[in-house]
Amino acid sequence: MSNFADRLAEAIDRKASCVVVGLDPRVDALPPDLLARARQSKDDAADAVLEFNRQVIAAVAPHAVAVKPQAAFYEALGQPGFRVFGETIRHAQQEGLLVISDVKRGDVGSTAEAYARAHLEEFDADAVTLNPYLGGDSIAPFLDYADRGKGVFVLVKTSNPSSVEVQDLEAGDKKLYQRVAELVEQWGEPHRGRSGFSAVGAVVGATFPEAAAELRERMPHTIFLVPGYGAQGGGAEDCRACFDKRGYGTVVNSSRGIIFAYAKDKTPRWQDAVAEAARRMKDDLERVRRGKAT
Amino acid sequence: MSNFADRLAEAIDRKASCVVVGLDPRVDALPPDLLARARQSKDDAADAVLEFNRQVIAAVAPHAVAVKPQAAFYEALGQPGFRVFGETIRHAQQEGLLVISDVKRGDVGSTAEAYARAHLEEFDADAVTLNPYLGGDSIAPFLDYADRGKGVFVLVKTSNPSSVEVQDLEAGDKKLYQRVAELVEQWGEPHRGRSGFSAVGAVVGATFPEAAAELRERMPHTIFLVPGYGAQGGGAEDCRACFDKRGYGTVVNSSRGIIFAYAKDKTPRWQDAVAEAARRMKDDLERVRRGKAT
C-alpha cells in the first residue's frame, strides 16, 4: 500500500482541503434528539454517540480529508465506548476519510508493540498520535506498519498552556521540543514517500506561530498535524507558518468548533451547521494555502 | 477516603510486601489449558485472559500489595479486551489488592478530564500512570480525584534503553528527568497524606540505580513505582536506592517474571509457579527493605 504521507497528499489534492475533524463526542453536548436517546443506559449513550459520529461524518466528508477520534472520550464511555470507537473508524473509512486515532500512546518496546497492534491492526486506524517521552524504541513498533500505509504523528509542541513546563525547557542550545523535532525528522527518514514527506508526522500547536515557523524549517520532510484551530484560539493565519512554500505538509484539526457548531449556529438542522463549519474552515485554510503557493 | 499514599503504606505494612504484579497478558503465552480455550473467537481469547488474570490474582494476592494491568494488552484484544480490563480491576479490588492502571496517558485539559473520568471513575482503578510531556494541566484533572483516595504515578525515568534520547537531555544545569522530578514533587505537595508521601508518585526505572538514588533525594515525598524487576534485568539490589531510610516510599513491579513464571519453572500446577515467583520477589525485596531500616 502507498506510503501514509502520499495517501494524505492525494486526499488533500482530491478534496482541495487540509481539514481534519476531531471526533471528541461529549454525551452532554449532543443535539437534543440524540441526547434524549442517550439517557437510559451506557449502551444507549454509546449508541447515541455512534449515531452522532455517523451524521457528523456524512456532513463533513465532502470538506475534510480525515477524522481524528479522540480515544479519551470513548474510554470515558466504558466498554461500549470501544465498540463505538471501532465502528466510528470503520464507518469513516467507508465514507472515504482517513482516520487518525488520537491516542497519544507512549510505552516501552513490548508494550508499544501491543499498542501498535491494537490501534493499527485491531482498530485499524490509518495513523495514531504518539508521545515521545520514552524515546525511539516506543515509536519503532508503530513504524513496522509503515509499509502497510500506516502513519504516526509524534507530539512535538502541543497547544495547551502548560506545554511550556516540559517542552520549552532549554536543552543545550535548543528547547526540548526542538530536540524532539530533530528526532522526529530522523525517525521519518526511512519512511519517506513520493511526496517527499514521511509517514512520521508531528503534532505542532497553532497557538505558537513563531515556534511553528522554526519547526517547519527544522522538519522539512515532516507533515504537521495542527490542533488548536477554532475552539483553542488559533485561526487559519496562525497556521500559515506550518505549510511549506507550496502550501503542503500540514493538516489542521478542529474538534468542538465543528462537531458542536450547532451550539452557536441555530440553523434548523444541526447537521447543516456542522457541514457549514467544516466548509468554512476548509475555505479559510485554502485561502492561506493558495497564498503560499503563488 | 484516605489518601492514596496512606492506603498504599497501610497495605505495605499489612502484607510486609512492596510487590506489584503487572498484568500484561499475551494470549500466545497463556498456559496450555487456557490457550486451548482462547482459539475460537475474540470473545474466547478475552475470556481466557480474564480467567488467567483471576487465577494469577488468587496466586499472588497473599504476596502483593497491588496489580498493574497494562492497558495495551487489553486494547490489543479489541472491544472484548475492555470488558476484561474492567472485570480484572474489579476482581483484584475484591481480592484486597490495589489497582494501578498502567495507561501512561497524557493529553490537554478537557481530554485529560475524559481520561481521568474513564480510568478513575468508569473503570475505577485506584491509580493510573501518566506521561508528563504536556505539563501540569495534563495532570491536574486526575488530582481532582485525590480526595476520593485516588493516585497517579508520573513517568520520570523509564527503564527502556531509548529513554535517554529525551529524558536524559541536559536541561540547564540538570537532566530533563530531574526537572520533571521537581515538577512531580511540586504537583504532589497539596496531596500529602499522614505517611508523609503524596498521592502523586513517580515511575523510576530500576535499570538506572545511580539515577534512582539521586531522585530519592530530589523527591522525598514521592512514592516510586519501579518497573524493570526481573524480566527487564534489574534485581532487588538495584531497587535499594529507591527506598527511603526507613525502607518505605517504593513499590516494585514485575510482570512477565511473575505471571509467566511457569515458562521456566515446570511445577505441575502453573499457578504454583506464579505464587512462588511472587513470594520469592517479596522475600528478596523485604531483605533489602529490612537492611535499610536497621
How many domains, in number, for the residues of chain A?
1
- Low-pLDDT segments of chain A: none
User: Order of strands across the widest beta sheet of chain A?
Assistant: 1-2-3-4-5-8-9-10
Strand content of chain A: 15-25%
Shape of chain A: globular
- Assigned CATH class of chain A: Alpha Beta
Helix content of chain A: 40-55%
Number of strands of chain A: 10
CATH superfamily of chain A: Aldolase class I
Largest protein interface, residues of each chain: A-B, 57 and 58 residues
What is the CATH architecture annotation of chain A? Answer: Alpha-Beta Barrel
Average pLDDT of chain A, rounded to a whole number, is 94
Helix count, DSSP H or I runs of 4 or more residues of chain A: 13
Distance between the termini of chain A: 32 Å
N-to-C order of helices and strands of chain A: HEHHEHHEHEHEHEEHEHEHEHH
Features:
homodimer; 294 residues; alpha/beta; TIM Barrel; eight-stranded parallel β-barrel; two-stranded antiparallel ribbon
Please give the structural blueprint.
2 copies of one chain form a homodimer.
Chain A (H helix, E strand, L loop, with lengths): L3 H12 L3 E5 L8 H6 L4 H19 L5 E4 L1 H5 L3 H16 L3 E8 L3 H14 L4 E4 L9 H4 L7 E7 L6 H4 L2 E2 L2 E2 H13 L11 E5 L4 H10 L5 E3 L9 H4 L10 E5 L1 H4 L10 H24 L1
Parallel strand pairs in A: 1-2, 1-10, 2-3, 3-4, 4-5, 5-8, 8-9, 9-10
Antiparallel strand pairs in A: 6-7
Helix pairs in contact in A: 3-5, 3-13
Structural description of this entry:
2 copies of one chain form a homodimer. With 294 residues, chain A is of the alpha/beta class. Chain A is built from 13 helices and 10 strands. In chain A, the strands form 2 sheets. An 8-stranded parallel barrel of chain A has the order 1-2-3-4-5-8-9-10, surrounded by 7 helices. In chain A, helix 3 (42-60) runs parallel beside helix 5 and helix 3 crosses helix 13 (270-293). The first copy, chain A, is globular, with a radius of gyration of 18 Å. Chains A and B meet through helix 4, helix 5, helix 6, helix 8 and strand 6 of A and helix 4, helix 5, helix 6, helix 8 and strand 6 of B.
